[in-house]
Amino acid sequence: MKFAQILYNKAHWIFEAEEKPEFAPNIVLFDITGRNDIQEGWDYNSETGEFTAPIPIVPKPVEPQPTIEEKILAENQYQTMLLELNTLGGV
Description:
Layout lengths: L1 E6 L2 E7 L11 E4 L11 E3 L4 E3 L15 H22 L2
Antiparallel strand pairs: 1-2, 1-3, 4-5
């Protein structure tokens, strides 16, 4: 027989045994004999008793941070612009 331990609505551990083991009452085991497609990490729906492959979470792309050289250049350009504006305003 093949079993899946269910933890947090996921197939946490899949194993084979001749009969269903007796574990602590809070350990949930589900008989998946003949269902070779189920893998550890799959989602388990307790209402339907069905397993589904998890939907992968695709992280958002991270904007590259400016290098120290780019930060210094931007600061220099900003300071130069302020000096030019100050010079033009004083004439």
